[in-house]
Predict the 3D structure of the following.
Amino acid sequence: MNERIQPLNRMGPGQSARVVRLEVAGELRRRLLDLGLIEGTRVRCLHRAPCGDPAAYDIRGAVIALRDRDSAGILAAPLPR
């Protein structure tokens, strides 16, 4: 795997990335696709809960909270700040 590609759950607040692929299946995959998480989508981490889970992401203008276990299957390439 390309070392620049990392799971979304490794992003910190203020970081942005572009979705490369989804490595999830079933209902979760369908839900993420319905939210617009397809290849090339820009995602920005807005905030993490005090314990680190969940995190809030800006996805296509909507703020979506995702648990770490769910966002671990979303692989993305970080964008420069």
Notes: Residues 35 and 66 are 11 Å apart (CA to CA).
